[in-house]
Structures are given as C-alpha cells and as structure tokens.
Amino acid sequence: MLAIFKKELKSYFTSMTGYVFIAFFLIIVGIYFAVYNLLNRVANFEYVLSGVSFIFVLLVPILTMRLMAEDKKQKTDQLLFTSPVSIGKIISGKYFAVLTVFLIAMVVICFYPLILLQFGSVPLKTAYGTILGFTLLGAAYISIGLFISSLTESQLVSAVVSFVVILVTALMDSLVSFLPTDNLTCYVIFLVFVILICWILYSMMHNITVSLTVGVIGEAALTAIYVVKPALYDGLLTKVLGWFSVIARFDNFSSGLLDLSSVVYYISIVFIFLFLTVQAIKKHRWN
C-alpha cells in the first residue's frame, strides 16, 4: 500500500494537478478570508469555511477524475490486479494519496485563525472545530469521487458525474422541499428504490437468487408496513433523502458544535464508498 501511496502522491506533483488544486483552493479561501475577516473585521473564521463549502463541487472532480479512470484507459490496471497487493490496499493507497494533497491545503488554512489572533480575540475552538468538519467533509467527497472514477475509463466522464453528484448532495436540502410527502407516493418511490437495489446487486454479484430474494423481502416488508400503518410513510422520503445531504452535517461544526454523530457520519461515508470502489474494481477484474 505504501508503494501505491508514494506513486500516486508523486504523480500529483510531477503533473500540474496537485499544484493547481492547492493553488485554487488557497486562492478562493484567501479571498473569502480577506473579505470576511480582514476587510469587515470579523473574528469568526467559521464564516469563511461556510462560505467556500461550494469549493468541493468545483475542485474534487478535478482531483479525483484520474485516480482509477486513467489506469483503466491505459490498461495499467491489469498490472495492479496481478500484483501481490490486495485490491483493498491499492484503493486505500490511492485514496490516502489524494487525501494527503487535500490535507496539505488544510494545514495552510490552520494558520488563518492564528493570523486573526494577532488583531484581537478569536473563538479558536469554533474555528478549529469548523476546520475539522471541513476536513471531514472533504474526505467524504474525495471518497465519492474515487468511487465514480472507478466506474469509467474516461476522466471527463468521471469529472462531470462527480460534479453532478456532489452538486446534488450540496443542494439536497433545497431539492427535498420540492418532493411529495404523501404516503402513497412515498410508498411507490420506495418500491422503485428496492427494484433499483436489486438491479445493483445483480450487476455486482450476477446472482439472480440473491437479487430476487432481496427484492421479494423488501417489497413485501414495504407493502406490509403500508397496509398496517400508512402514516409512517408521510414525509419519509424527505427524511431519507435528507440523510444524503452531506454538507448539512457541516453546519453543526460551523455553528460551534462538535457533533460526534456527524463525525461518525463522514467516516462512514468514507468507508462505504471505499468498499464500493473495491467491489467495482473486483467486478471489472473478473469481467
């Protein structure tokens, strides 16, 4: 894993990708820092990171688009598959390499509250709590970008899909307000979700028995709940999709709350998408 990590990290700085990411990241944060904190004389650094959270929509696709897609296009992924290193370690090495590039920028940002401290009192606990939340948010988005990169051999497709997915998660709170909340519509949509899950299971496992079993059990459970107590479906779709609002958890950190549930949420997102990436690569390998 260490060899993969070093190789990937080196590739970011032998090309322009790593430098461009860090430069644009710090420029955008620097502009907001100058306007919010220096020009307006506001001591709260958390306002800066809350204002630049959109940065992930623009920069994460650029940072992650080549992680797996480039290996697929150049057929160098075959060398990885035949290496003695497990696929899990290969994916972990790639992930920690790109995460390190992101952390380099975050280390620089850690000095910003200390700069403000030279001019007066600064709520450092809130500032560094927000930096922690911002770092976890970035780590989660990077894992999502890595997974999407494993699904295609085109870097452009990977970047565009990552952009759309991250944008949707960022706007999820606004989007769910347009969704229906009546129990019948929610019930039908959940039935469609179960069918979609069965299709994903079949595409990954090629086991019709498992897929059908999951589908039958899922559809039967949803129908039984709807017959017995349909009121449980009222607004349930909004609540479930709200769980996918990755950026909403960051608001807790920027409000000065160290929410352990949000920390667990972000770490869970990382592990889930790393696991899905491994499964996607294994499927491609056996195909």
From TrEMBL:
Where are its TM segments located? 12-35, 47-69, 95-115, 127-149, 156-178, 184-202, 209-228, 263-281
What superkingdom heads the lineage?
Answer: Bacteria
Can you say where in the cell this protein is located?
Cell membrane
Q: Start and end of every ABC-2 type transporter transmembrane domain?
A: 40-211
Q: What is its main location?
A: membrane
Q: How does it sit in the membrane?
A: Multi-pass membrane protein
Fetch the Pfam families from UniProt: ABC2_membrane_3
What PANTHER family does the database record attribute to this sequence?
A: MEMBRANE COMPONENT OF ABC TRANSPORTER YHHJ-RELATED, MULTIDRUG ABC TRANSPORTER PERMEASE YBHS-RELATED
Q: What is this protein called?
A: ABC-2 type transporter transmembrane domain-containing protein
Q: What is the lineage of its organism?
A: Bacteria, Bacillati, Bacillota, Clostridia, Lachnospirales
